[in-house]
Amino acid sequence: MSKVEKTDNQFVRESIQNQFGPAVKSIEESYGMLDIVISKDTLIPVITWLKKTETLRFQFLTSLCGVHYPEQKEFEFSVVYHLHSLTQNIRIRIHIFMPESDLKVPTLTTLFAGANWMERETFEFYGIQFTGHPDLRTILNVEDMNYHPLRKQYPLVDNTRTDKDDKYFGR
Amino acid sequence: MGINPELIPIKNGPEMYTGEGYGLTQIEKVIGLARANSIWPLPFATSCCGIEFMATMAATYDLGRFGAERLSFSPRQADLLMVMGTIAKKMGPVLRQVYIQMAEPKWVIAVGACASSGGIFDTYSVLQGIDKVIPVDVYVPGCPPPPEAILDGILKIQDLIKQEPIRRRESPQYKELLASYDIQ
Amino acid sequence: MINISDDNFHNDHRINGHVEPEEDIRQYNYLNLGPTHPATHGIFQNILKMDGEIIVEAEPTIGYIHRAFEKLAENRPFYQIPTITDRLNYCSAPINNIGWHLTIEKLLGVETPKRVDYLRVIIMELARIADHIICNSVIAVDTGALTGFLYVFQWREKIYDIYEEICGARLTTNIGRIGGFERDFNETVFARIEHFLKEFPAALKEFESLVMRNRIFMDRTIQVGGISAERALEYSFTGPNLRAAGVDYDVRVMTPYCSYEDFDFTIPLGSSGDTYDRFCVRQEEMWQSLSIIRQALKNLPEGNFHADVPEFYLPPKENVYNSMEGLIWHFKIVMGEINVPKGQVYQCVEGGNGELGFYLISDGGRQPFRLHFRRPCFIYYQAYPEMIQGSMLSDAILTMSSMNVIAGELDA
Amino acid sequence: MITEISFYSLSFLAIVSSILMIFHKNAMYSVLFLLICFFSVAGLYVMLNAQFLGIVHIIVYAGAIMVLFLYVIMFLNMSSPITIRKSKLIMLAAICTGLMFLFVLFAALWSVPFGHAPQQVDQNIGLAKTLGKVLFNEYLIPFEVTSVLFLSGMIGVVIFNKKETENE
Amino acid sequence: MNELLELKDQLRLIPLSHYVFLCLALFSIGMTGVLLRRNMIIVFLSIELMLNSVNLLAVAFSVYHNDPGAQAFVFFNMVVAAAEVAVGLAMLVMIYRNIKTIDINALNRLKW
Amino acid sequence: MQPLSSRSKIVSNKTMSWSERLYIPAILAGLKVTLHHLFKKKVTVSYPEQTRPHSKFYRGRHVLKRDDQGRENCTACGLCAIACPAEAITMVAEERQKGEETLYREEKYAAEYNINMLRCIFCGLCEEACPKDAIYLTDTISTSGYNRDTFLYTKDMLLEGALPETRIDIQARRKGQREGAM
Amino acid sequence: MESISIDAIQMDYLAILAQFVIASGFVLGTFFLTHKLGPKFKSDKKLQAFECGLESIGDARLPFSVKYFLAAILFVLFDAEIIFFYPWAVNFRELGESGLLKMVLFVSPFLLGFYYVIKKGALKWE
Amino acid sequence: MTILVFKILLVLVLFLISLGVAAYSTYSERKVAAFIQDRLGPNRAGPFGILQPIADGIKMIMKEEIIPLTSNKILFVAGPAITMITALMTSAVIPWGPSVTIDGMKVPLQVADINIGILYVMGVVSLGVYGIMIGGWASNNKYALLGAVRASTQMISYELAMGMSIIAIIMTTGSLSIGDMVTGQHGTWGMGWNIFVQPLGFLIFLICAFAECNRTPFDLPESETELVGGYHTEYSSMKLGFYLFAEYVNMFISSAIITCLYFGGYHFPFMDKVSAIMGEVPFAILCVMVFFLKILFFIFFFMWVRWTIPRFRFDQLMNLGWKVLLPLSVLNMLATGTIIVLNS
Ligand code: SF4
Ligand code: SF4
Ligand code: SF4
Hints:
The complex is a heterooctamer.
Chain A: H1 9-20, E1 24-30, E2 33-38, H2 43-52, E3 60-68, E4 77-85, E5 90-98, E6 104-106, H3 115-126, E7 129-131
Parallel strand pairs in A: 2-5, 6-7
Antiparallel strand pairs in A: 1-2, 3-4, 4-5
Chain B: H1 15-18, H2 26-36, E1 41-45, H3 48-57, E2 80-84, H4 92-101, E3 107-111, H5 112-117, E4 138-140, H6 147-163, H7 172-180
Parallel strand pairs in B: 1-2, 2-3, 3-4
Chain E: H1 7-13, H2 16-36, H3 40-64, H4 68-99, H5 104-108
Helix pairs in contact in E: 2-3, 3-4
Bound molecules: iron/sulfur cluster (3 copies).
One iron/sulfur cluster (SF4) binds next to α3 of chain F.
């Protein structure tokens, strides 16, 4: 692999905009990292391109997680991908947003083997469906968990349960 | 179905052993001493507290001094179930099964805030104290309890064992206790 | 809601979500490794489909100590979050702790003095040593050599003593504060660190001489649970496990934090990502950590042990008792009414197990809006089935312990 | 006294355990009963002063062959249990045949004089040394041939095993 | 106390015929087993039993007739039996793995 | 994978020398090490007879402090309860009545003050949060018990004795805290 | 080897018998004792096989690797072969050189077979 | 008849000694382990924890016995019984000391000086496999079965090399009796120990003894980190006790046999001179003590090794047994033969 010159955020921003243009909804920089918002249809092409392009080589999926913004109507749920280009040593953050009515996101397992469990976890926490995922099941909780605990409407503590005795709490 | 924890009486410390037939015979004393000095723990170490348990086993504190260094991971062989660390709901049935499969006489010690009461993890997924699923004999506070505290718990268990009448495990009270946990 | 129903068991032949065909059930042995298996030091379950001693397929089930860290974090004020992070990777709690503080400091824009950085580096490297001590000695224990474990564990105990002198606790230390430390390192701390630096190398040598070049140990670990660099990257491996596969990725070098750029150390690498590589890499990392601590002690700058940020750092008690301003700040901080900017930060540190990342979304409230932990264990444990495929049961166990999967971090 | 008691109790044990062996449903128990039978036979060897053969009997039969049987039983594990038994009639016929056979031979041999115990007994006859001498002088050829037998045995076993793995 | 006898007296106490009949009994039991059982393992065991009875007989004769040759013969018998069992059981396992049963009658139905 | 930095080195040597192949030398070396330890001084602390000295900052069982005149310091402001991540502290505040000045230093006091020791994680945040110098963690460990109820430490159990001799000395801790900031 | 008096032999075996009786008496006695003394508390769940706190998947007595079986077969063959060595070793001094030769002759097919077995990977466990 | 009484007495004494030594081996194992690991080890049960084995024993006896529902009850009980009985049986042929005169007859301090002594040992050892196999199989537990299969395969495999290495000794001694083997090592001044002529054989035998006792580095069948408890996973109370105990009895006996075969048994340097100035009985006692000293050293060695080195993986263990030790022992045998032939 030929040694490419060190790139910076600016370069990434420009090249991604050149490549995808309007598909990229916004690019901002905060705390030294690019926040790129794309629509979820372009997710796979963008990430594939980011991974494969010689000058970028974002071949490392640092993390993947969901976020729930209950008050952003029509964009309640978001999935955030942290990508890292080891050779260039640049990290970027990619956001996709979706409404609660349509929680389907294409899976990244085809590109990163490591995305498997991260997606399962996100599914479990937020109920986001990763289409094409080989084995989308709950991973951390009991299998018959019937809600998605990290959504904001659910409290931390499950108040219906009986295994708690307030006598032992300081409140 | 799950047990209804409201029905579970909170167990009353060592007094419950003193009730019937207090005053141990000589033989009972000897047996009690023997049992107390030969505790084989089953370390049910799930998380951080398990690391402190390691420290307790290690040279500086040496659980072996109490004759308890022989860990047995098979419940058949263990005398003391040491629950160390968070017990999530997913783990609850497993813990119960292990407890049930232990051979009598058996004791349980809940080490650390999590095992005893859930600790800071007052969350949807964590059991708020293992005494919701199995009877506990000694609680050790701390998060994690320092090795001294764990040893203190072991000493307490030893006291308990020394006081236990030999027929306690066949007494109706004990059966009742188990029944209240839905264990026949 | 509490689900202690007895039929909550995993008792059919299921691997990777599908029920196994009848033919396979007759032919293979399905062995259940965990949850209460001595080899699964933390608690996870593996259903192994075995052909004799050879593992054909494995399915890990995790979540046995899922504690809902992320949800919990959304419900705790910022200054209480270290109590949560400490329990993520409890083998090296201070690294998590400082990692979190770096994150929040980044969000708040707090500049820490050099001295704080250096002290943090010392603490983090001690924590790394503590972590690797556990991991490597547990590898040794799993090969049957218990004694080495007890030798090095004494030194972990010494690290605990150091922590205890700094913050009063041993394992879940709660050692840092926003902007620095709760109190300055006193003489005893430095004396203990010096003592540790002086004596520990001998103990480490001894441990190495017990196992490292012993053929039994080498045979047990070489070519066991290997993973190629490509696959490791695919799986987003980081830390010693990735370095064992031959990729010199180290957050301390790639994205220096806490003035790591001031220190001179090498990144130990393995060649084929097998258990022996992982063992050696961790072993060498301990040596490197020792050298980093030495450098930090030698060049330790004078200065304050915390940043001068009265809005985030609790004022000294005397001020609280005596001055109105101090009292007000004190109340504000404890009540969590400090001004936090909105925004998103990602900060990562080189944890005991690899890149430990904190992705914090703040909406300006007293609690994080969303805090996602990039937990290295969680991410690479999914490669486990692949790594043990075709190996033997004993290999599977060694692979597991050499990956240093910490249940607290795995299950969140 | 002791001699008679030993002989008759050992014989009794041998016969009873071998009968149990053939009738027991569970093959595992059959093996164990046969083991007991073999021990009694070994005891008889010792009584006959064939100590070496007795211990070889134990090492080879009890220590090796029966272990192999156990392996087979564990290995096959009867995951399809052999519950199908032969029909009652055939069973009866089998037992009758056995009894008849016994009876006929008994009758035939009842009056055969086997001769009395010799006046002078060579006490060294059962020793390994004597046996060795015989073996390495008179029976040298069979001895060497056994080795070839073993060789063929090994080859056979390995070939079976090979087939095995290929079939999978 | 003279309960401890010399070998020759011992031999006198138990006539050779007793050994013969014992061996006969064992042999017939073995034979019955072969006929009776369909489980190949048991059949095999019965064969071993028959072999044993013969061995015992040979040893008895050798002692009573003062001839070490028979014992050498028994010796061969035993070790050869070992080889036979080894190969036999290997075959048995192979058969089992192919036809999934060790019922001896099942073999009849097989076209080899 | 190309190197990402210039400071890496390969540390695992997997080729065995012939003496390593023989098993025996390494085993003998190991035996030597263990034999050496056999005669070494043991590091064990025989708890409970011996105890390891805790650091003066050790975070153990809590104590509610009194001031020099033996009055309770706590003013039931509730900061400790808020700061507690385990929600282990409960209290009931009450106004100080006339004539109780010798008992309570501030106008309000905690009529009830409970810490659930089983929930407490000994993080020390309460100590830090207290504006009235009232609650401290001590260097004694919190002991275990047979009954979950007994871990609800009430005020009587937490409060140090009124007499000067029965005071629990946390002076070092108080001083040590933030001494650099002064 | 001097001839041993018959009495001694019988006595030796009797002593072994005595040892057997004592040993089994001890073992069975202890079993009886534990059976009588220990508490009893039976339930279905308790008496299930232990499998890390979960219920067992499938039958425990499942086929294990054919390798074990192969090792056992080879053991039987070899064990029988070793038996031949004993009478030979006892007589070794008398047999002298020719004995050695005979044994070499005997051992060589054995070693050949052994070599074959290893070559064919029958003892390979991977 | 007095001799018979004497022998039965000896059996009883031996039985008690075996149990005692084994019991205190468990204690000293824990102590040795502790000391090697810089710990103190059990020290609460009695002074220095000396009552630890008794406490363990009482506890085990008083423990509930569990027989799993799915197990074969009889076999489940038979397993540990066989193991324990076979462990206790081996001591019969070991000569514990020189002969003493009883009833005008020279009687060796040996339960049974049978002329096939060493084969008796091999026979009993080969029966030890049953206890483990039956127990593991009867438990109907996966770990137990796997442990049992491993254990038995390991034991039978190492039996081969063991038998082979003994042959070299038999060749030099020309007898199968252990008594003869020990007296054969008298040499000059009681130092003609076989270790000097058979170092390789000794090494092989030692390794095999480790394997037969299931001791580290061959303790795979019960290696906790892999198979919970191995073949005794399902056992509780005294049945477990016997499995564990048998290991120590075996260790004791193995040490005794190693001593007999390679370290001259009860012989010690200059024993002729000592015997000349001592009475018969005191001399016998001295010899027995020397013998026990040697045994204790080996028991210690067993422990020392256990707490030092890692254990093998199963395939490595089998490779060592089959591909290294077995050929080596054949080689050793042939080499011994050649040397003897050349020397004569
Ligand atoms: S009590 Fe604390 S240290 Fe123990 S497991 Fe729970 S969180 Fe971890
Ligand atoms: S202890 Fe301190 S913080 Fe807590 S209520 Fe009292 S005065 Fe307030
Ligand atoms: S130490 Fe921490 S957990 Fe305990 S009461 Fe204080 S604040 Fe709460």
